[in-house]
Amino acid sequence: MKIALAQISPKLGDIDQNFRMHIDYIQKAKKKNVDLLIFPELSLTGYTLKDMVEEIALDPHTDPLFKKLKGLSREISFVVGFVEEKEKGLLVNSAAFFSQGKISHIHRKIYLPTYGMFEELKFFGQGKNFHTFPTPFGKAGMLICYDFLHISSSYLLFVGGSELIIAISAAPGRGFSDDEGYASARMWELMGEAVSRFFQSFVIYCNRVGFEDGKSFAGGSFIYNPGGQLVAKSPYVDEDFLVKNIDLEEIRRFRKYRPYRRDEKPEVTLEAFKRIVAKYED
Amino acid sequence: MKINPAFAEKLLTRFIKEELSKFHFTKGILGLSGGLDSTVCTHLAIRALGPKNVIVLIMPYKNTYGRDVQDATDIAHRLKLKSHVIDISPMVDAYYTKHPTDNRILKGNKMARERMSILYDFSEREKALILGTSNKTELLLGYGTIHGDMACALNPLGDLYKTQIRQLARHLKIPEKILKKKPTAGLWTGQTDEGELGLSYAKIDKILYQLADLRKSKKEVISEGFPKQDVEKIIGLIKGSEFKRHLPSIPKISARTVGHDFLYPYDRDR
Fold it and tell me: Could you tell me if A6 and A38 are in contact, meaning their C-beta atoms sit under 8 angstroms apart?
């Protein structure tokens, strides 16, 4: 199958302009016979929204722009990031998987970074579940940015049978590095490599670029195959449109070679968790 | 929109007093134009610090202020304040003889920054902290000169709309003469805020209150019966002036960056 990553720089708070940019990328991807196109976290809105969150939230089931996106997804599947009004006044940071003319799944970000430069819990409600869901390319699971840095998130998708783990991100770069790009890039790549290798899924990470209030989104989107091998990578900091063929047969091949999936014992983990959590004290 | 002026007075006086003492200052200094905001701020400063600890600078440009200079001088005299009248014409004109312009906004901004520069100089000379006089209406609309009249060490009136300052002024028994004046930034002779903004403060504040305090959307405010063009104009001014309400952006490179994740309270170690 053919995957494309749109490493874009959305315009902060301008949903109409971002929507047009999405359409352009969808058309561009269609021309290249892409099967699945991934946009980064909050791709329709920009990241540093603060109080704009409440002005820009939409209901995916009734919003006219989403109706158009559903129509476009008859020919190509894609993942879009947006602010969702889940209930009246309950705003969440969401990712929608569009395919075959409908929304196959919406993931609501669970881990909202609120430390240092981040203040997401001030503005967003939290999601509650990690689901895998069927797609034309196999079972997939979605994560948003900081979700991906909690290994349990990917573990739950793995146990849920994921074959594609799609992590969309608006990750600012932090720290000097001897290598090109920010020091923080290593953190994402390490997680990508580990998750893909030990949870035997393709890991598709799409980050954004551009500046918002001085935060520099680091780019460096990537795809790892289920054997932990880097398949493709976008440059740091610059916009990019990365198109890559991946071989879904590799999932079977790597799982035959090292049957982590077959040998995983979620019931043991579950019982252990029950014991450990029961003893939790503050 | 209605405030309890006695409570506002108590809170703001307390703020001025506490803020100065945290920075180990006993004296406050401010520019007194003879208009409502600076007069109210002067009165609050006197209640907080005592008349001996309040210094006012009256800084006319040629005859732009005219009557206002006299009013300001009268206020300073009546309240027994240390005051200096400093004519900014020579400095401003010296610049504009070399770089002439007919643009009144440019000149107004230059004057505001000239006054700022003098205030900071006197702040150091007198060991007095600068009290700003920007109100909530101006801050939201961006109706002020960045690094000019917006520059200060503390801004006591920053959360009161112009019309609320008027309520406070009545409570403080500010002379009717000052209350009746048409608000002006003194950018040029005959300039009035309401004339320049094209809307009265009464109208502006009502709309701002709906948008900012009650968090209503543009659509909601218009459906309340406020004219669409007024609401849109005000939203435009708010959006266009966001930069005036922030420190400049610093591009994040390192692991810890000023303004991003090097986070300490303003009152650190005070």
Answer: yes
pLDDT at site A196: 98
Place A226 in a pLDDT band, splitting at 50, 70 and 90: very high
B-proximal residues of A, 172-191, CB under 8 Å: 172-176, 182-183
Mean pLDDT of A4-9: 98
pLDDT band per the 50, 70, 90 thresholds, residue A217: very high
**What is the total count of domains within chain A?**
1
- Contact: A216, B261; criterion CB under 8 Å: no
- Which residues on A lie below 8 Å from B251 (Cβ)? 211, 214, 216
Residues of chain A contacting residue B261, judged by C-beta atoms under 8 Å apart: 116-117
**A23: pLDDT strictly greater than 90:** yes
Q: Does the interface ipTM go beyond 0.90?
A: no
Using CB atoms and an 8 Å cut-off, which of residues 39-58 of chain A contact chain B?
Answer: 54-55
Domain that holds residue A69: 2-278
Backbone angles phi, psi at B175, to 5 degrees: -55, 140
Asked if the structure places residue B112 within a domain, the reply is yes
CATH number at residue B71: 3.40.50.620
Q: Report yes or no: A234 and A199 within 8 Å, Cβ to Cβ.
A: no
- Asked if pLDDT for residue B85 goes beyond 80, the answer is yes
Side-chain half-sphere CA neighbours of B15 within 13 A: 16
End-to-end CA distance of chain B: 33
Total structural domains within chain B:
1
| Chain A residues lying within 8 Å of B260, measured CB to CB | 116-117, 214-215
